Amino acid sequence: MATHNLLLLPGDGIGPEVMAEVKRLIEFFNKKGPNRFVYEEGLVGGASYDADKTSISDVTMEKAKAADAIIFGSVGGPKWADVPYEARPEAGLLRLRKDLDLYANLRPAVTYPALADASSLKRELVEGLDIMILRELTGGVYFGEPKTITDLGNGQKRAVDTQVYDTYEIERISRVAFELARKRNNKVTSMEKHNVMKSGVLWKEVVQQTHDREFKDVKLEHQLADSGGMQLVKNPKQFDVIVCDNLFGDMLSDIAAMLTGSLGMLASASLGEVDPKTKRRKAMYEPVHGSAPDIAGKGLANPIAMIASFGMALRYSFDMGAEADLIDKAIAATLDKGIRTADIATAGEKTVSTTEMGSAILAEMEALSA
Ligand SMILES: NC(=O)c1ccc[n+]([C@@H]2O[C@H](COP(=O)([O-])OP(=O)(O)OC[C@H]3O[C@@H](n4cnc5c(N)ncnc54)[C@H](O)[C@@H]3O)[C@@H](O)[C@H]2O)c1
Ligand SMILES: CC(C)[C@H](C(=O)O)[C@@H](O)C(=O)O
Ligand SMILES: [Mg+2]
């Protein structure tokens, strides 16, 4: 019997609401065995700021480093609009990613058959869609220095953000892209802007070299990120794995969310290298969506992105592929029965609450594993 230690970080807004559904899934798997999950909860984001005046405490960071996996909800919201920049809720999430070196962010965009009409695109464009956006998560303009606002003294201010990429950062994310593609449809599309950015020139060069050296069997295409975004909504099924930098990946994955019907559907895994001591990959599982202040506290949030992120934890951290498949099948079966939270309902469809959606998925899991 294996025991897995999880750190749950529900965060702010809808984070705690969708995390409550993950706790029910943990109970389900603990009852079923033989794997057992033990979890501790911690504060992150605005919730942590309110308690400790920091977006994540050193104590919570230590727990994150020690956990077998972190399950993250969401952070941020208007309540913390005026806190110092360094202590803003989002800084806690960025510190987790950076300090744990979680450089590979897998953001699959899968359109469930029952939801093809919930997408803002035509059914035939998205039906059967299954693409993987691989976002570099610990470099680029998110972390480059300098990052400043300077008063120029003439009534003007100057803001500077810096995009930085070293060869090794591009090489390691490229490898993940090619390895993922080998297990999927064997195609990688790399997106950057080498026509404007030096980091784009290096990105394209290193991805190509890594391909030519180690992954000649995988089909590689390069696309400028702006027209790549256009292609993503024009003909999304042409893609298999898309690999891009931190900022382009942030934007392209939110765009991809609408191919699946809602941001409430998009799960993600943020992975680092294998820890030599534990032999386990450092990992955090986080839905792509944020704290959704417009619907927080109302029981309206779609828990599927969070539940599917937990499913990714089973698959990528705990070698529980069959259990991860069970979650995916239960989500599909629930959607097939027409059960919808408001974000994925089409006009006139009856909607359910966050908890009701969680209960429906659990019921399908019970039925499928009976
Ligand atoms: N990983 C994270 O913690 C994360 C990610 C993105 C944004 N944020 C933060 O969240 C706050 C709000 O940002 P935003 O409004 O731009 O993005 P958001 O993702 O929170 O919400 C965008 C829209 O999608 C809807 N939505 C998102 N998740 C949903 C779900 N599970 N079910 C139903 N509808 C859902 C929201 O209601 C909203 O209309 C900001 O402070 C931002 O920095 C945090
Ligand atoms: C909250 C924010 C820091 C984060 C990001 O920009 O990476 C979010 O938008 C995401 O997509 O995970
Ligand atoms: Mg984002």
TrEMBL record:
Q: Name a single GO biological process.
A: L-leucine biosynthetic process
- Which parts of the chain are coiled coil? none
Q: How is the cofactor bound?
A: Binds 1 Mg(2+) or Mn(2+) ion per subunit.
Name the Gene Ontology molecular function terms of this record: 3-isopropylmalate dehydrogenase activity; magnesium ion binding; NAD binding
Asked if the Swiss-Prot or TrEMBL record annotates the protein with the keyword rRNA processing, the reply is no
Which amino acids does the record list as binding NAD(+)?
Answer: 77-90, 290-302
UniProt site positions, description: Important for catalysis: Y142, K193
The record's section on InterPro entries has: IsoCit/isopropylmalate_DH_CS, IsoPropMal-DH-like_dom, Isopropylmalate_DH
Q: Which family does it belong to?
A: Belongs to the isocitrate and isopropylmalate dehydrogenases family. LeuB type 1 subfamily.
Listed under subunit, the entry gives: Homodimer.
Q: What is this protein called?
A: 3-isopropylmalate dehydrogenase
State the organism's lineage.
Bacteria, Pseudomonadati, Pseudomonadota, Alphaproteobacteria, Hyphomicrobiales
